[in-house]
Design brief:
The strands form 2 sheets. A 3-stranded antiparallel sheet has the order 1-2-3, with no helix packed on it. It has a two-stranded antiparallel ribbon with strand order 4-5. The two termini are 22 Å apart. The chain has 2 domains: 39 residues; 79 residues, GMP Synthetase, Chain A, domain 3 (2-Layer Sandwich). It is of the alpha+beta class.
Length: 128
């Protein structure tokens, strides 16, 4: 289970976030009226996907005792009309063979956050 809390106050678009016991800040870019004090919401979404991808691949490689020295995940969110897309590019560091690299790319398609985004998730909203 994961928990987060977001609060926007007097500073236009600045959001103070608490995720677990970590404090973060989100904001809109200056061209959208914010002060760019932190990542914008879609940047946070991409960061979550990148973190999950990196962690999952590192865990998998460790369990297999594969020489994965590092994972770099570059992400881009684009929208064209009603069509939305995330492009993910993996750079795998270490002395991996082609089969290991292919397997890690396959695993990336099934990380928990990847599966959540691909499947969609129900969101309920209540007023307090």
């Amino acid at each position: 289970m994961a928990r987060a809390h977001a609060h926007v106050g007097e500073t236009r678009y600045r959001v103070d976030l608490k995720a677990g016991h970590h404090a973060l800040v989100a904001d809109e870019h200056a061209d959208l009226g914010g002060q760019d004090a932190g990542p914008a919401p879609y940047e946070l979404l991409l960061a979550a996907l990148g973190a999950c991808t990196s962690i999952t691949l590192k865990m998998y490689a460790e369990r297999k005792s594969w020489p994965l020295a590092g994972v770099d995940v570059a992400l881009l969110f684009t929208r064209d009309g009603d069509s939305q897309k995330i492009e993910r590019t993996l750079t795998l560091e270490g002395d991996l063979d082609d089969a290991q690299r292919a397997r890690l790319a396959d695993i990336a398609e099934r990380t928990p956050v990847t599966l959540t985004l691909k499947a969609g998730v129900a969101i309920t909203t209540r007023l307090r």
